[in-house]
Amino acid sequence: SGVQRYGREIVRALDRRPNAADYMLLAPGDAAPFDLTSIPIRRLPGSGHIWEQTVLAHAARRGPLLSLGGAGPLLHPRQTVVIHDAAVFRHPEHFHPGYARLHRLLGRALARRARLATVSHFSRAELSAVLGTPADAIALASNGADHFARLTPDLQAPARLGLEGHPFFVALGNLAPNKNIPVMTRALDRLAHPDVRLVLVGGQDDKVFRRLHADDPRIIFAGRLGDAAVAGLLRQARALIFPSLYEGFGIPPLEAFAQGCPVLASNTPAVHEVCAGAALYFAPHDDAALAALMSASMAIPPDPQWRAIARQRVAAYSWDESAAVLDALVRTSR
User: Which of 79, 108, 156, 281 would be 114's cystine partner, CB 3.0–4.6 Å?
Assistant: First the structure.
């Protein structure tokens, strides 16, 4: 998920800082392996919200705590928490009711007890409104895409998915209501191009996806892929489709720009903030408009000047700069 990506890349950026050894990564016992150069890793038994509120709180009690995943232990007195968006307040229908209630309670409590940071100007305004916190009290530490700009794409990834000879579009992200998968399948229905393919990449329940469009062989369910394979797909795709109903930021468009891939995106505020003039936009529920953009993407190559604009959007965001912002917050809470 985008939150997991944020956590990993911020920790890696902190690991590159001169004061990296001041940190310790406290991780649940079942966390995936993570290689760091300077920051030691301490694994603590358990996982989940109870682990966060008890085991993590106890282990971090003697120093300031930086929590990157949208929540943190309420009893910790010196904590910086990154809350990525206000989705549980603005769109509770996208979540299990218990999850939404819990995270609304956590958000309100952390707004009183912790320093807050978020990932976009849009999310800062949203969180200020729903939490009653002055916007200028919420730090801005955005996502980045430099992790995609510096890797080597796996250019054989399309062939492994049977895409040779087919124009294709890519969508990245876990299956969730806000990701708005149905608008893409409806747009695909409108295209009179039997050879076109739509590649869905991310953690997903394939049965759920197949119920969305069971009989269309043009939809490829790729599941989770490594970064190099995703970059290889983006390097050769006609465009990334990013149709989200609600986002606090949206990393995939920047990842696409980093690989020279055009972006067709929903015209939601956070996506506009991130992509600016580098994306082509459609209303989130307008499958006819999306289908028209897909047809145009297959018929007309990108304007050569577009690549420079896309590179500018990638350069506007940096994991290292965001890590520096968070590091400063942590150091002043010692």
Answer: 79
